[in-house]
Design a protein that fits this description.
Blueprint lengths: L1 E9 L8 E2 L9 H12 L8 E3 L9 H11 L4 H15 L8 E8 L11 E7 L3 E9 L2 E9 L7 E6 L8 E6 L8 H7 L1 E3 L3 H23 L4 H17 L2 E3 H9 L2 H18 L6 E3 L2 H7 L6 E4 L3 E4 L7 E6 L2 E6 L6
Antiparallel strand pairs: 1-2, 1-4, 3-10, 4-5, 5-8, 6-7, 8-9, 11-12, 13-14, 15-16
Helix pairs in contact: 2-3, 5-6, 5-8, 5-9, 6-7
Length: 337
């Protein structure tokens, strides 16, 4: 349960809207506090994490600096919440960014022991939903239309954990309403980047491999769509079955051919240089990253506009040929399901 909460109104300065700062923390009834906590934390459904960064020194990142002050001295909560709101107000450089309420929340960990981690939440509401109010009126009921904040999904959220301070803390970040500006929340306001952890390495390793199979492999080798589908299936199964990724094992079990292995390693090196990232050759595999990324590994062969073949298993059960009627695929199976 959070121990401190304050709300400010942050408009879009480009559109002539104002910044309104609260002078006191909110005092909530217990039921309201529980409802807000569920609302605030309900959107964090991924294990993908971020960290603050700066082009110079971390202390020059305004949000990093403010949350550090709060973590070190809770008495500064009100003052630093105003600084966060002012920074968000100045971050709006796009007229499509919507104004809204900014909630700053301090979650004090009440557990005992070494696992205790306080958190600071930064939440912004933007969208308004229409709703009806029904009330007694003489011998019938009256209806009024009003607008308010829907509690199904927060628009923007960041949860900062009080650990890894030296490298920019650990954050969970959500933006469910980009307003046509994908940089406003992550880059202009928070200035965060994805953490270099097992989730990141798993996700990037899978995506660089997918790009290689679908784009580079057909340019260098004679492979069919069925062969590409087989490579994709074997790769995703490798990540599902293993607890740790080792490039040598992956190359041997999935790629097989030494020429293909050499081609992939060269492609991976070029990818890392172009994207300015480093994908480790050994790392623990993140099950959550595999689950999220595997939806991009759909092994589908599209045949004109007549058929789609979804390949999930053994490549040997699929043959390709051509006769007087045209090209064909022959599928072998044990039973219909």
């Amino acid at each position: 349960m959070f121990s401190k909460i304050i709300v400010h109104r942050v408009g879009n300065k480009i559109n002539g809207e104002s910044l309104t700062l609260s002078q006191e923390e909110l005092q909530l009834e217990e039921g309201m506090a529980e409802m807000l906590e569920d609302y605030f934390l309900g959107s964090f459904k991924t294990e993908e994490t971020y960290q603050f960064y700066s082009d110079t020194y971390l202390v020059n990142n305004p949000v990093y600096s403010s949350v550090t002050e709060i973590f070190e001295d809770k008495a500064k909560f009100l003052w630093e919440s105003e600084n966060i709101a002012k920074h968000l107000f100045e971050a709006a450089e796009n007229p499509r960014v919507q104004g809204g309420e900014l909630f700053i929340v301090f979650f004090e960990d009440e557990r005992e022991g070494d696992e205790k981690v306080d958190k600071i939440g930064i939440f912004k509401t933007e969208k308004r939903e229409s709703f009806l109010k029904i009330f007694p009126q003489e011998e019938t009921f009256g209806l009024e239309k009003d607008q308010g904040i829907g509690l199904s999904k927060i628009d923007k959220a960041a949860l900062i954990y009080n650990n890894n301070k030296e490298s920019g803390y650990v954050l969970s970040v959500v933006d469910n309403n980009k307003n046509g500006d994908m940089y406003y929340w992550f880059e202009d306001f928070l200035k965060v980047k994805q953490r270099d952890d097992e989730y990141f390495h798993t996700q990037e390793a899978l995506m660089v491999y997918k790009d290689y199979i679908t784009k580079q492999l057909p340019q260098e080798f004679e492979v069919s769509k069925a062969d590409q589908a087989d490579f994709l299936n074997k790769s995703i199964n490798f990540f599902k079955e293993k607890e740790e990724f080792k490039l040598d094992d992956f190359a041997t079990e999935v790629l097989g051919d030494e020429h293909v292995i050499e081609s992939f390693v060269n492609f991976k090196t070029d990818y890392e240089q172009d994207m300015q990232i480093n994908i480790a050759e050994e790392f623990p595999i993140s099950e959550a990253a595999v689950k999220k990324t595997q939806r991009h590994f759909k092994s589908i062969i599209k045949l004109d506009k007549n058929f789609h073949i979804y390949i999930h298993g053994d490549r040997k059960m699929l043959e390709q040929g051509q006769d007087e009627k045209g090209k064909y695929y022959m599928l072998y199976f044990d039973k219909e399901v």
